Each structure stands twice: as structure tokens, then as C-alpha cells.
Amino acid sequence: MKNLYKSIVIFSLLVIMVAGGGCGRKSMAGMQGIFTKNGLVMINVSHQPQEVAMKVNGQSKIPNWHFDGGSVFVREFWQPGASYEVQVDGRNWAGTAPMKPTPLPVSAQELGMLEDTPAVKDWSPVVYEDVAVSADGRYIGVASFDHNVYVFDNTGKKLWEYRIPDGVGVAAAFAADGSKLFVGESSPDANIYAFDTLTGKIRWQYGMAADIGRSTAQKWNSRPKITNIVVMGDKVITSAEYTQRVTERDGGRAKVTYVTSCVIRAFDGNDGNPKWRYPETGVMDTGISRITCSADGGKIAFANHSWSRGQFYVDGSIRLLAGSTGKLIGLCQLTPKGGKFSYVGIFDGINISPNGQYLTIVTSDDRGMLFDVSSIKADTADGEPNRDFRLLWLRQISNIQQVGGVPVYAYGNTARTTDEGKVYFMTGTTFLADKTATSGAPPFSHPDATSFFAYSNRGELLWKWQSEGGLGKLRFSRDSRYVVIPIQHNYVTRQKDKSGVYCLDLARTDGDPLVWFYPLEGVAVAAGIAGDGTTVVGLEVPIRQVDDRPDGMHRLHILQ
Amino acid sequence: MTRYKRILLIVLVIVAAGGYVFFRGSQEIAAQVEFTGQGADILLNLPQEVATVTVTNEAGRLLSVITVGPGARQKIPVFIKWEPDKQYAFELALRDGRGVRLTGRTPADELEKVSFVLQAPYGLSRTDSTGVVPAGSAFTANILLTSHTDQPVNVLLDLVIPPGVEVLSVPQGMQAEQRGGVQHIVGRRRLAAINEHWNEQIVLKAAQEGLEPVIQAVANIDNGREQWQMTGHAAVKVATVADIARNIRVQAVEVPVDVTGRSDPKARSGSLVYAPASRLSSLAGGKGEHARLDDEPFTYAGIQLSNDGDDHVLALVTVKIIDPASGALAPVFVSPAHKNAGLGYSYGVVDLAPHAFSQVILPVYLNENSAFGGRYKLQAEASVFGADQVISGADKEIQLITRNDRPVIITLFMAMTALLGIGWLIWRQEAALARFTSKELVIISLFGTVTFVAVNLPETVLWDMARAVLGPFSFLVTGFFNQTVLYALLVALVVVLPHPGAVTLMIIVRFILNGFILGHFTPVQILTCAVLALCLEVALYAAGVTRKREAGPDTVGKVALLAVACGLVDVVTTYMNFMAYMTLYRLFYAHWYINAVLAAGFLYTAGGAAIGCRLGSTLRRTALD
Fold first, then answer.
1. Which of residues B547 and B202 earns the better pLDDT score?
2. pLDDT-based confidence at A437, cuts 50/70/90?
3. HSE on the CB side for B185, CA within 13 Å?
4. ipTM of predicted assembly, 2 dp
């Protein structure tokens, strides 16, 4: 009997040992290879290796590699389906390349608490923060709605953070050499800051409220705010906008109007010296779209937009400025489509090609256009602006469905053009009648909602790609090869399964431009990509479900 | 228990506990895969933290490795190109180290090169549903052809319109044809790019109820290598408005509600309060920005609809706020030109499931420049989306209450009058009193005392009884003392002593007595006395009584003039009194009540003034002797 008891005890101890061994279920990860769009990345490499060897389909190949942050990056145009063997200091790895690249998550950094977050049943993302990646992909800057500015390196290490005294971050851009981070805020003063990228020291700042007015309103959208930051060589161009409620006496009665003030300024990026101002005196009485500039900084383009027509700067007017002086050198006036669309509505849908030859526009009512603006020169003498915007083609990129007098459409959001005149457009989510309607979600989606279109320079549709959900701030790589698209929830179906960061390769011609999709727990409100296309980032915010339960967190995702 | 037994027991307990933890931790993860047009969706039975998803095909070839961001999720979309009737394997690596492997076989049929959807009426969420349209109403059919291939395809579309359905509009690029007595709408389109589509809306009309026409469509497709045909159909049920209304009803309208549809239990239903920033607040500390009502809704209206029928109905719901007098959209509630497609009213679309309730929440905008308080009517209407007949509606009375600065301004005026008056009297009291002889001062004091005795004391006694019996209409009783007797004595004094200032001194005497004897020192009484003195002095001077210093009105005309003047003074001072109560005590009165009090006061006062003339004339002969 004693022996029996002994046996049972020993057996039980063995069971415990096995089970206990199994409890440490997280295995010690060995070196792994990830096939990214930038090349092959060997992760879990603890130290700088001495030697890296590679074989492709059994054939030896000398790899071009570098080590950074625990990974070996092999610059390799890997072939889908090919077999790879990599040896790093005697450690071996073998794998087959997939058909498509994989995003390599480098880091997911938690950011601060947000005061308000989007709801799955509403179209608005609520959070309009911004993220920027330096041209070489080494640094990431976040202008956050949690009242902070953050800078991280591409391994996810936070270099510094800065608390905005009384506002939220809404715009961010790095200097061309990455040495400075420019951040714009929505605040009583509408400051633009130039931070030293490494130290966070403020090199200079300027309060745009001096030009457009100051306000202590509670809501960020009711305050003066920076709407654009564009880096042009050693200059930084910024615009600020403020819409205020003005009460005037009209005879015996008080009259309330909403007056918009907007101005563009150029500064020396190093010391903040003002270079020029547009308009030279006074302000524009409408808001403006995204500012776009040619690669040499010679031409700057933007459009005026306003729900009401605007008195002096009419909605739908496209302006070209000389980059060196800020003088108006070109002007073109678009008119509303008519019917239920009483405004043109150009927001992000404007872009000039790097060589300054082409200008593309997409309006809220989905009219996509390509202009040849090569005859408009930056050295135009003062006088009447050149109106020679040669329209090459105009397409209704998405039709507006008229249903019982109610227009159903997917609004035109983004436009991009290349030096060859190839054009890309992207539409947003489904709306009835106009973008700002707050009548709740329609129970159907427009067939062109959240769609990316590629057109030839002759206006022929080359391909179309579609996801679902609302659109955040998307970014192109410098050469327009890649675009990273942050997608939010689908407020029509109240789903967020396809929310996340999408990377498209616009050079693909097989009609399947999707490189990878990185799903997020919350929704993506902004994305960034390094100028060289390496580092990709996405900003996630939590979303409230129908029962008010939040999904996701406020995070910065760094990917390779 | 022996030692071995004890050790055995301990070990068994540990094994049992460890086994529980071990096996509880590895809760069964169930997953399934559904193939879609863009790839596949992996569905988990419970939210899990998935790190990667690896997809391999039947031959073991690695297709894709998807890395997933942190956070638990139940559904993971995977974007891959799959081939029909093939097995694919999905390996999920969870962050806790566990793994799940599942396989799925793709549909036997390959993905359509071209997909074809025909909807009637527009927007029906289920293609197998039958849409309901009102007889005699226009409705919209929606056609959508999408190419899923990068090879160009030519499409010839032939839409067959059944008898009983009329075509109201033909899309540009398509033509209407008659073939064998049947109407067709045909068109051609080339779809050159992948995911390019051809989308048209056709407006139709079904005149006769009871029909169930089926709209059919045939698409002949040619990609240069092969040709094929696709068909679609959409069944429509034509019903009378009454029949549809029997099932689709606007059940209730609630306003104001918040953006989630909840009403404030503290707010009265149908009452909208508009309180813009007052000038005082702008003086106090800069411009405070309030909700910019031009861009943001002022409030929301919640419309509850029910669908008792067996079919899905896509309903268009509109909310219009009209002026009951004119029947037109009330300017104060017309939405801004850049909202609601410039229609001026709000609308929304809702998919009404069969045998279900739905709530639509629509914004209500306010035009601050037309924000006049008053009564309006909110009309909520529902119609089949794409059709132009209203099938159900409900109205709700609403009242817009706006901030009125008038009480504050008037109260400020009264306060300034009182302050200036008291200040002047203190500063120039000797000069003020030196204008009268001692005899005159005695007479004034006597009149003041008599007024106190004849007006204030009875009023004090009667006030509570009158209010208890007549409630707010006690003024009909107390007015006799407050106005008739008071003004009789006031006018009598001014007839005896037609001097400017006499009435003022009398009012002061009465106030002092009222305050010291009855303790009626209230801010409102100070203000009322001040304006009463001012208004009476001005009125009596204007009427010539104290200006000409004559022996009082001796003709019917002069008596009438004086009576009217005093009546108007009472109207003005009583109105100011109301304003002071509104400002200082936050009491609010209905307009009709105020008007009734003023009217009664005028009559009582005028009568008292007339009596006072007679009394004054009689007393004059003896008073000044």
C-alpha cells in the first residue's frame, strides 16, 4: 500500500511538472523573418550581428542589410513564393515569401486621454489630430487632441512630449532635414511652433490669432486654428482660420452673422522670420483647402471654400501663389454644380504635381478635374493673375444618385497627381444631400463610398479600389508610390471591422493595389508615411459602440 | 492519517487546482471563415487578442501574413484573392501564445466577373424583399453593374418594364423602346477598369393599386473572349396610401430631445427655450462663444415610427416647423442654406423592418436673426423613400420662448429713477421742501396719511382674503383700493394743491407710513413709488394741472383728460411693476393676465381720478381757507 501511495505521489508530481511547464505557454520567440514592403526584416536579433548570409531558392546572395533596434533590415526586393534562408551569426531562419508584404508592427504607444471620442452611429471622427513622419522615417511627431505634442523615434521610444497650454494639436510636419517639428494648434492664439526634434526645445512660435482674431471659446472648432502646415525647403507655409459669431446692429435689431477670417503666412523655418503674407492686408473671408506646392516651392495652390458664397474670396476659387513672394499669380473660379449643391466645397481635394505642371481638383460633389497650369509662371509680374488654367479633362468620378429629390453621394475627398499627369482621387463615406447634414446615417451605402480611383492623364479610369468606413487624414509617400489610408468605422452599418491602416501601392497595375491592411481595435484618424516610404504610422482613437462601450485606445502605431 | 496519505492528499489537491487553471485557461476557441468578394472574414466565438493570421492555399503556398494591432476582436477581415472550390488554411497566432488553425473551402462557383443588382424601390436592404410603393406615386429603381475583372467588358442592358408601370424619366445614355407592346429601357456601357461600375436610377410610376409588377433586367456581357447573360428582377407591391399607412405610422413626435433621442425630464415637452448671450455677460468678461446655432442644431426632434406590415420599407422622414398663421415654414426654424440640401427643413431615411419600431432623430436649427418667441407647429411626415406621397404624419405644437431683456431694462430704469430721486432729495431736501408753505406741507401730509389709512390698511386686510377667494383675480377687488381710492386722493390733492412735487411728497409720506407701521419695505415698492411719482408728475404737468396751476379741471373734457392721463400712468407703472417682479423675483405671467390687470387698472384709475376731481374741488374751498 505504501508503494501504491508512493507511485501516486511521484506520478502526480510528474503531472504538475508537465502542466507547470505548459503554463509558461509564451514560447521564447526565436529569430523570425517578416516580408515587408521595404524588404525582409529579421526580428528578435538581440545585438548588432557580425555576419548575415542569405540564400534565395537555394542560391547564395549577398544581402544589403543594416541593424536597428533589435532587427536586421535586409533591403531585398523579395519574390513572392521564393524560399529564403537567412543566417545571422550562426542562427538560421528559413521561410517562403508570401504573395503580399506584411506590416511589421514596431511599437504601439499609448497616448493621453481624449475628452471626446467618436460614436459608431455618427459619421464624424470627432478627433482631428495629426501625425507626421520625418523624410528618412526616423522620427514621428504627433499633434494630439489630448493637448500634447509627442515625438518618438521609429523604434517607439518617446523622445519628449510638450503640453499645449490651452489648446489641441491639429497639424504637424517635419522640416525637410527632420531637425525640426512644426506643430499647429487650435487655441485662443492659434500658435504654430517649431520644436527641435531631438530636444523638444521651442525654436520659435507665432500666434496666428494676431491676424485672424482671438477667442476663448470652449469648442476647438470655434477657436482660431492652424489648418495647414507645408514645408517648402527652408520655408514653412501655414494657414489659420477662425469663424466667429458677430452681433451687429441692423437698424433696430441685432443681427447675427458668422464671419470667417483666414490668412496664409510663410516663415523662415529656422528662425521664424515672416517671409510673406497672403493676403498682404486684411484677411480672406472664407476658409481654405489643403495647401499644396510644387517640389521646387515655386508654386503654391489652394482653394477657397465656404458654405456661403463668400464676398471677396468666393467659394470655389482656386489660387496659385508664387512660393517666394506669396503674390497671386493664377486664379480660376469654379462654380457650384447646382441643384442641391450650392457650394463647390474643396477641402483636401487639391494637389499640384511636383514639377508644377498639373493641378488636380476634386469637389465635394465628385467632379474630378485635371488642369495644365504650366503656363502660369512663378515669376509673373505684379498685376492681374493669370487665368490660363487649361482644363484637360473633367469627370464625374462618382455619380450622385437622385432619389425622390434627395441626392445620395459619396463626397469627393482627396486628389493627387504625378508629374506625368496621372491622377488619384478618393471618396469618403455616404451622405445624403450635403456633407454636413446631421440627420443620422442613411440605411444604405453609395456604391462609391470609401473608394480610391486611379485615372490616366487622359481621364480614363484605370482601376478602382474600395474599402468601407469613414476616411481619416491620408498621406502619400514623396514619390506618390505608396499611400497610407486611415479608415474609420462604417456609420451606415455601425461596424468597425475594417477600420485600420491600409497601405496601397499605386505602382501596381493588376488592379489590386492593396499592399497590406493593419486592423486596429479602435478607428484610425490619421496616418503618415516617411518620404522614402519606409516607416508608416497610424493614430488610433477609441470608438463608442451603440451601448456606449468603448473599443480601442488612443495609440500611435509604428509600422515598417 | 499516515504521512504518505497526507502527502498524497496535498499533491492531489495541487494537481486538481493546477489542472483546473490549465484547462480553464485553454477555453475552446471556435472560429469559422466566410469567403467574401474581397477575401475572407474570420469569425471567432469570443473576442480574442490575435497577433497574426497566416493564410496558405491548398498547395501549402503562403499567401499572406496579416499582423493585427493590439486589442481583442471577434472578426478579422483578410484581403486575399481566392480561387473557386479550393481549400485555404488560416492559422491564427494569439498573443497569449495559443494558436488556432481552421480551414475553409471557397464556393464552387468562381467570383462573378460582373455583379448585377436591381433594386426597386431604391435602397431596399434585401434583394429578396418585396418593396412597397404607393399607387400613383413616383418611385426610383436602382441598377448597379460592377466589373470585378481588369479586362474591359461591354454591357448591353435591357430593362423590361411590366404593364401597369410607367417610366417617368430615362437616364441619359439610355433609350426607351417598345417591343411587342412591352416597354424596354436599353443602354450600353463599357466597363474598362476593375471595380468600375455602371449605376443608374430610373424613375417609375405604378398607377394601380393591388398590382405586384416585377421589373426584370437582362444584361448581356461581352469581354471579348466570352459572352454571357445575367438577369435580375425586382418585385414591387403597389398599395394605396391608406393601406401603407395602416402599417406604416408615425407614432409619436418628441421635442426637444438630445442627439441620442433622450428627452430632458425637466423640460416641458414642446417648449424650446432660446437664451442668447446677454449684453451683461459680454460686458462682464469678453465674448463667450455659445453653440453656433447656424452650424449646429439648436435641438433635435425624435420621431417614432412603426411598421406593422410584413415587408421592409425604406421611409423618408421629414420634419418641418411651420407658422400656424401662414402655413409656411417658420423663418426662425428654417435650416441654413448649406444644410439639408437647402430645403429649409430636416429629413432622414430609415429602414423600417417588419413588425418593428424605429426612431429617427432629426436636427432642428434656429435662425438667431428671426428668433421671435411664439407658437409653432412641427409637422413630421413619412413617405416611402423615392416616392412622393406622404403616407403618415403627426403634428406637435411647440412654443419658442426667447430671452426678453425688457424686464431687466425696465427694472434698471426704475432703479436709476429711484436712486436719482432719492439722491436728489437727500442733496436738495431743503430746497425741495422750501417750495411749499408749512400749510401746504401739512395738507400733503394729511393726504398721505389718509391715503395710508384708506388704501394700505384695507388692502393689507383684504389682500389675503381676496387672494384666497379669487386667486390671481383678486385685483378685481383690491383694485378698488389700490387704484380708485388711491387716485381719488392723489387727484384730490393735486386739485387742492396744483404744485409740481406735491404728489411726490404725498407718495413719500405714504411709503414711510407703510414701511414703519406695516413693515412693507421691499425693493419693488421703492421702485414702484419712484416711477409712480415720476410718471404722475409728468402726466399732471402735461395735462396742465400742475403746469398752469389752475383751480383744477372744471369741465368734463378736462376731467376726462385727467382721468385718461392717470389711467395711462397706472397702466405704465403697473406694467413696470410686473417687469420688476419678473426680474427680481423670477415670477412670470401670462400675457393675457397682464393685459387684464392693466385694463382693469386703467378703468379703476380713471374712475378714481374722476372722483378725485370732484373731491378736490370740494376740498379746495375749505382746505386753503
1. B202
2. very low
3. 23
4. 0.87
Whether the CB-CB separation of B509 and B445 falls below 8 Å is answered with yes
Could you give the angle at the alpha carbon of A330 between the alpha carbons of A329 and A336, nearest 5°?
Answer: 150
Determine whether domain B114-239 maps to CATH 2.60.200.30: no
Domain with CATH 2.60.40.2550 in chain B: 249-277+294-402
Distance, CA of A349 to chain centre: 13
pLDDT (tens digit per residue) in B143-154: 999 998 888 999
pLDDT band at A306 (very low <50, low <70, confident <90, very high): confident
Report whether B186 contacts B174 (CB < 8 A).
yes
- The more confidently predicted of residues A442 and B82 is B82
How far does B140 lie from chain A, in Å, by closest CA? 6
Confirm or reject contact between B369 and chain A (CB < 8 A): yes
Most confident of A173-187, A324-338, B315-329: A173-187
Distance of residue A432 Cα from the nearest chain B Cα, in angstroms: 8
Spatial separation of the C-alpha atoms in residues B589 and B584, rounded to whole Å: 14
Q: Does domain B1-110 have CATH number 2.60.40.3580?
A: yes
Give residue A515's pLDDT. Answer: 93
Interface test with B, best of A406, A456, A558 (most B CBs within 10 A): A406
Buried-exposed string A4-24: b where 16+ CB fall within 10 A, e elsewhere = ebeebbeebeebbeebeeeee
Are A434 and B336 spatial neighbours (Cβ–Cβ below 8 Å)?
A: no
Pairing of strands B137-147, A168-174: unpaired
Least confident among A50-64, A245-259, A499-513, B233-247: A245-259
Condensed to tens digits (0 to 9), the pLDDT of residues B291-330 reads 445 567 889 999 999 999 887 788 889 999 999 988 999 9
**Does the bond joining B163 to the residue before it have cis omega, within 30 degrees of 0?**
no
Within chain B, all domains assigned CATH 2.60.40.10 are found at 114-239
The helices-and-strands tally (H runs, E runs) of chain A is 2, 44
Say if domain B249-277+294-402 classifies as CATH 3.40.50.150.
no
For A98, which of B64, B290, B342 is closest by C-beta distance? Answer: B64
Partners of A74 in the β-ladder: A40, A65
User: Which residues of chain B are within 8 Å of residue A498 when distances are taken between CB atoms?
Assistant: 77
* Whether A348 contacts A476, CB under 8 Å: no
